[in-house]
Amino acid sequence: MDATQAAVRFEGVQKSYDGETLVVKDLNLSIAKGEFVTMLGPSGSGKTTCLMMLAGFETATRGEIYIGQRSINRVPPHKRNIGMVFQNYALFPHMSVAENLAYPLKVRGIDKAERETRVLRALDMVQLAPFANRRPGMLSGGQQQRVAVARALVFDPDIVLMDEPLGALDKQLREQMQYEIKHIHERIGVTVVYVTHDQSEALTMSNRIAVFNDGVIQQLAPPTELYERPSNAFVAHFIGENNRLDGIVRSRDGDICQVELGDGSMVRSLAVNIGGVGSRTTLSLRPERVTVHAKAGEIDNVFAGKVEELIYLGDHIRTRVSLCGQDDFIVKLPNSDRHAMLEPGANVHFGWNAGDCRALDG
Amino acid sequence: MADSTPILGDDGLTLKAKLRQAERRNKLKTFGLTVPLLAFILVTFVFPILLMIARSVDNPVPVRAIPQTLEALQSWTPPTLPAEATYRLFAEELLAADETGDLGRLASRLNYDLPGSRSALTRLGRALRRGAEDGQSYRALFEEVDPRWSEPEIWAGLKALDGRLTGAYYLAATDRTRDVDGDIVLQPENTRIYIGLYLKTLWVSLLVTLFCVLLAYPIAYQLATLPTGRANLLMILVLLPFWTSLLVRTTAWIVLLQSQGVLNDILVALGILDDEGRVQLIYNMTGTIVALTHILLPFMVLPLYSVMKTIPPNYRRAAISMGATPSRAWIDVFFPLTIPGLGAGSVLVFILCIGYYITPALVGGRTGQLISSEIAYHMQSSLNWGLAAALGTILLVGVLALYWIYDRLVGIDNLKMG
């Protein structure tokens, strides 16, 4: 992406709270106009700090943050024109829903008539027009969430930041809100920076996801790529379920490498992020990419395994297998009549293609 | 189908009956737990207050001691003097009352309404015991004993004693009295005390409340935003007045504030005051206000603190992210949310202040006294309990009225004590 077109740009940003450890280490990130970017990571990974620096509530220890062409390091938060949806919504309890929405317009000195039309438009967008005169405390969690989103959008900000906004909702409502936020984003095309530790939220809504760990972006990629082609062991493990096989690189031929596991079995893998021959590596293999009753010759890797445990999960059956010296190898079997049920204790051949087995940093 | 056949348990009881039984046990248990406190409050709080209100209108002595005189006086109107028959009736009833000791009580009671009239009655009693001279009319006897009996005022005073209940204490408590025609009039200017004192008490309470708000708000804000460790230290400083004996505090104020005290010495040493110009900071209103503010400050800090503690910092961040300057966000979002704490603290401080007795008594001197000291005076020294009760009842009604106004303006539900 051309850096000059970016809506938001972090350039070499660092942040330290105590002057000894860096919470954010050398962050470089460009976000295009209209893009929905999610910062995903475990707690303490620096994602919320990045959001707060963008909002202006934390100052970067080093580096520059740009909105459009303008460096905003010295712009106070109230002049940044950034909408924000907070954890637990932060709706003002002493104002009605309409007053909450009108607040950003009021501080901007927009006259009353204009305020009312814009508030109504924003409430219509989240289907809450009948609730305009209620206090936030009288709304359900989902409704409060929608009000918070409407309030962050009502003053046409350049960027909207969302800090784990769905954390307080139950699972079903959370999924529904994910779609709703996604659709609102698609409709009005505002730039969104979203912070969460919930990978399904990130996968559902984002154009691109930045996976944070230890103050560093581990991978920045669209959801499919992140899931299908994780570039390191942390991302592979953090996004979706994942079988990890530790081994040593024995040979490499272009994209394909041979990895020797602890029990001596050799696995043909895709070389993604490995050192030279002899270095340690972690193989990452999605449980749903494993084939049962595999035959040598049809598939790159075939190993005999013993079924240890079957867990019925409705749409699929989780199968724990001992294989290649590991007894926590997981295979997902779709619950369909094309698949014969396995029995615990059965010895079965499992197989997978080299392309699905990614050799990552050890 | 459920309503046609009641569900029966093993022991043949219907489900409804069992539910009632189970709930009755629970209710009894809850009630049982509150009984001691309820009884305590009833005996030590509700009952004395009712007694006080009753005493403020109670007037048992006159109708018991001189019922016929009072009845005879009903047909009399000033400015003439009553008929001779009334004098005789009164003399007979007084003699009877002297036997039971009611004469003295009647004299005290009349003295409340007509200051200085006690002696006119007691002297009359003594004269009546000696007996009238032959042929002398009662009227002549009365006038010989005390010249006041030749004036209609004292008779009007007796007439006004009629009735089992009286409003006389309330009249006195509001600086009013009855003139000879029975009309309610203001007392002469030099004997009006209470209205002025009530207003002074209100004013001082308002002032103390205001000072408490000014001092407590920033402290509570600090407490709510500081890290816990330092907040606790600060909280101890705030609560220190609570934990110090009143006498220790009072001594400390005297040491600090008296005209030869630390504060004056410092001001003189710094050349701000000269030695002759030392200011009197204690044993006057200044002393009362300083001491009350100090004592009542925690009652303002604690509700404010507890309310501020519950306001998430995200609220102000949200306001700022929407374009409000930090000060505007504070005014629009933070301050309105602290109003319940402000209200609770103010009501608490104001009401405590309005009836505070011991501190003004110790450091108020002559000019720093509030209505409470008058009530105590009538309880302990003048023994005019009716007036003390009336003054107290007016205070109580005033406080309730303030509660009501507060409820109308802010809402009692908004009160957050902690």
TrEMBL record, chain A:
Keywords: ATP-binding, Cell membrane, Membrane, Nucleotide-binding, Translocase, Transport
EC number(s) from the headed UniProt entry: 7.6.2.11
Coiled coil region boundaries: none
Catalytic activity: ATP + H2O + polyamine-[polyamine-binding protein]Side 1 = ADP + phosphate + polyamineSide 2 + [polyamine-binding protein]Side 1
Residue ranges annotated for the ABC transporter domain, each copy included: 8-239
Family classification: Belongs to the ABC transporter superfamily. Spermidine/putrescine importer (TC 3.A.1.11.1) family.
Protein name, UniProt field: Spermidine/putrescine import ATP-binding protein PotA
Automatic annotation (TrEMBL), chain B:
Protein name: ABC transporter permease
GO CC aspect terms: plasma membrane
Top-rank lineage group of the source organism: Bacteria
Membrane topology of the entry: Multi-pass membrane protein
CDD domains according to UniProt: TM_PBP2
Localization: Cell membrane
Organism field: Pararhodobacter aggregans
Keyword annotations from UniProtKB, A to Z: Cell membrane, Membrane, Transmembrane, Transmembrane helix, Transport
Family affiliation: Belongs to the binding-protein-dependent transport system permease family. CysTW subfamily.
